[in-house]
């Protein structure tokens, strides 16, 4: 039996990265209240469900939503770029067990198969950088660098050692990097949510600001793609090359601008009869 399907049956899906896209740590409030008003409107006009697609764990994201005083919960959450949860009618978060368990199993196997390579990368990080190697439940292999420059150096070392044909992948978000399987990222996870809800890419919107958003900002996943004005240059260039929408505004003001671009207000002009 499939578990974790949301009670609400939408016609459109809206996928938002959290940090740097919706959430501005210097903002007061960190997420514009106008953003939530627009979501309410789009729920009525387009039967749009919305979700957060983040590199954060579920627990850490829920902390972030509480700290940001979100007035309503998302319909779905994709945590650690791959773990899917749907909001149940009783307010609990129901995991998509089939998908989540497959992710964990396949990534675990892949890391075992890549043991020598991972050992080499770990050794390199330890000996040549001040970055921290992360290995803990739910987070089998990750790196936290001290600076973006250090992470860029580490990435170059990884790229020269991992063959392009390897299933081993990684997701980078500023100074953070998480190893995993190339098959499980924000794009494939959003596509999984869409399949569960029977929503085609033409009716899916996605917005993100950083490297780990790349796979969801793809027309095979979402026809409506955008990045906020504060996006990293590689993501802005990608959105531009794909014919997506480059916002002038940053953070949640950018998300509002992009939503208004793809879901314009119905004209209220009346024509003479
Ligand atoms: Mg981000």
Whole-number total of structural domains: 2
Distance between the termini: 56 Å
Strands side by side in the biggest sheet: 5-4-3-2-1-10-11-12
Top CATH class of the largest domain? Alpha Beta
Distinct small-molecule ligands in the complex: magnesium ion
Q: What is the CATH T-level topology of the largest domain?
A: Rossmann fold
Proportion in helices:
25-40%
Element-level helix/strand string? EHEHEEEHHEEHEEHEEHEH
Q: How can the largest sheet be summarized?
A: 8 strands, mixed
Query: Which blocks of ≥5 consecutive residues have pLDDT under 50?
Result: none
Strand percentage lies at 15-25%
Structural class: alpha/beta
Write the layout of secondary structure elements.
Blueprint (H helix, E strand, L loop, with lengths): L11 E5 L16 H14 L1 E6 L4 H10 L8 E4 L3 E5 L5 E3 L1 H17 L1 H14 L3 E5 L2 E6 L3 H14 L6 E6 L2 E6 L4 H12 L6 E4 L16 E4 L5 H9 L3 E2 L4 H12 L11
Parallel strand pairs: 1-2, 1-10, 2-3, 10-11, 11-12
Antiparallel strand pairs: 3-4, 4-5, 6-7, 7-9, 8-9
Bound molecules: magnesium ion.
Structure, explained:
Helix content is about 35%, strand content about 20%. It is α/β, with parallel strands linked by helices. The strands form 2 sheets. Strands 5-4-3-2-1-10-11-12 form an 8-stranded mixed sheet, sandwiched between helices. Strands 6-7-9-8 form a 4-stranded antiparallel sheet. It is globular. Magnesium ion binds near residues 20 and 210.
């Amino acid at each position: 039996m499939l578990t974790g399907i949301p009670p609400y049956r939408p016609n459109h899906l809206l996928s938002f990265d959290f940090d740097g896209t919706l959430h501005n740590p210097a903002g007061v409030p960190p997420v514009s209240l106008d953003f939530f008003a627009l979501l309410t409107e789009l729920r009525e006009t387009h039967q749009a469900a919305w979700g957060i697609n983040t590199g954060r764990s579920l627990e850490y994201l829920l902390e972030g939503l509480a700290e940001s005083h979100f007035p309503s919960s998302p319909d779905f959450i994709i945590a650690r770029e791959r773990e899917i949860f749907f909001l149940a009618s009783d307010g609990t978060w129901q995991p998509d067990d089939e998908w989540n368990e497959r992710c964990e199993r396949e990534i675990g196997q892949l890391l075992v198969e890549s043991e020598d390579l991972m050992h080499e990368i770990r050794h390199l990080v330890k000996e040549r950088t001040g970055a921290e190697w992360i290995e803990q439940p739910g987070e089998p292999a990750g790196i936290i660098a001290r600076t973006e420059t250090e992470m860029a150096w580490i990435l170059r070392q990884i790229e020269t050692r991992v063959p392009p044909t390897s299933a081993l992948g990684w997701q980078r978000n500023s100074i953070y990097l998480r190893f995993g399987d190339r098959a499980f990222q924000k794009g494939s996870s959003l596509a999984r949510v869409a399949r569960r809800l029977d929503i085609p890419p033409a009716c899916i919107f996605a917005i993100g600001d950083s490297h780990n958003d790349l796979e969801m900002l793809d027309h095979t996943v979402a026809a409506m793609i955008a990045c906020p004005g504060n996006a990293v240059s590689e993501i802005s260039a990608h959105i531009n090359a794909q014919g997506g929408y480059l916002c002038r505004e940053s953070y949640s003001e950018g998300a509002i601008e992009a939503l208004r671009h793809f879901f314009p207000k119905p004209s209220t002009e009346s024509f003479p009869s």
